[in-house]
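User: Assemble these into one structure.

Assistant: Restating your components, then the assembled model:
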Amino acid sequence: MATIKERQDVLVEEFEFFDEWMDKYNHIIEMGKSLNALPEEKKNDDLLVQGCQSKVWLHAEKSGENVRFQADADAIIAKGIVAMLIDVFDNQPAKEVAAADLGFLEEIGLKDHLSPTRANGLMSMIKQMKFYALAFAG
Amino acid sequence: MSYDVQSIRQQFPILNQQIHGRPLVYLDNAATAQKPMAVIDAISDYYLNYNANVHRGVHTLSQRATDAMEAVREDVRAHINAAETAEIIFTRGITDSINTIAFGMGALVSKGQNIVITAVEHHSNIVPWQMLCQRTGAELRHLPMNEHGEVVLDGIEDIIDEHTAMVAFNHISNALGTINPVEAILERAQKVGAWTLVDGAQSGPHAKVDVRAWDVDFFTLSSHKMYGPTGLGVLYGKRERLEALPPYQGGGEMIATVTLEESTYAGLPHKFEAGTPHIEGIIGFGAALKYINEVGIEAIAAHEKELLEYATKECSQIEGFRVIGDAKNKASVLSFVVDGTHPYDLGVLLDQQGVAVRTGQHCTQPIMDAFCIDGTARASFAMYNTKEEIDLFKAALEKAVTMLR
């Protein structure tokens, strides 16, 4: 199974294919569309990630040593971004998720590209995922 | 003379730039308008040639700065037809203006009285009154709106009654663009002897207001929405009303005498202008007012009306495009949602194509709740926008919608 690092490399390769940010956004949107939606009953306020401009729900559960993530968002770009994070982190050892370095966000250029409020939203999603992982790893 | 939008655009150098490789289409004017060279030059001139603190200095520069600032007070007075310059207070903005009144009324309002606003207010004309009501026990009421985003006057006699201390409402809604029936609301308020405040945040750049024709007690303007600098607002108040209110903040400029035990306050307008004023802002605002009047506020309003109608017609061709707030009387604001898309996503993809719009709740959460939506995207127009820009906006919106669906 691919490691966190290997999964990031795949994403970086995918994004290298696009020069224009409109095309990168299109790819993010497509990832958002293909992310399985959370069932409505799971979209409760307890799962909302604080600090995002749009609503992002994040659900995590322990599966052996690993952590499983599910997420949804009311805005599709936010959903695409959380889909990328799930792509990297889902079903990985909790310990490794908690300690992971997410260099791909810089390599794709997403971190620099987002406005400060949206970048904060991205950081909040990552923090929340790592928070769950840390709790499960303990 | 016909309206020459191209020569107007030349006065706004910021418009001539590329965003993400596309020409900038700036349609976030209801948030803040861009500044013409006349304003930028006036601010530079102040710092290059006569920067000094005002009112206190005997030296020449201080006198020049004071004269320039006080000349703007007179320009504002003339612009809104106030009776005297003492009734023109410079504030930090509309929020500050409204808080000044709401704070001061704390001493005059008591339990059993009520304050009336409308359902289409900005948070800055809701929260100060809620705070006043919490302090005094007065009741906060509002005139409701209908599905078009228009204030409903049915039942106004029951809402504004003989216990109403203040009726405060905006001239034009920032979120929807609705032009409120100012005269009808004022007439009822005046009949019962309530004080009145009209928030001109959105009307300042589009409409000429005569405060004495309205016989309104308080009126507010925002410099930065009128092509002037940020951080400056105007509070007009009738002399008798302003004199009845205690000062909002204490400090320099607002006093007559100070001992370590007690102080006496300065007369109007200084009583409400504690601290060193926003001198550069006031001077820049003077240049903005002059510029608006040179172009002609009626001509600007007519140009924007044409843009609004054109944009509404064009964008309505996009499947699922819904205007939020389709009042009969509207000014310069096109608030919308597109079915199957989120306003934030539209905002991001429009920005990628060079188009600046505002997305979200526009500081009007109660309005969004009433329409059962989380927010809208809002395009708002100014004197320098063109039909070509609206074509670019529409094309960008179509592309965004295609990507998002």
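The first helix of chain A runs from residue 4 to 16.
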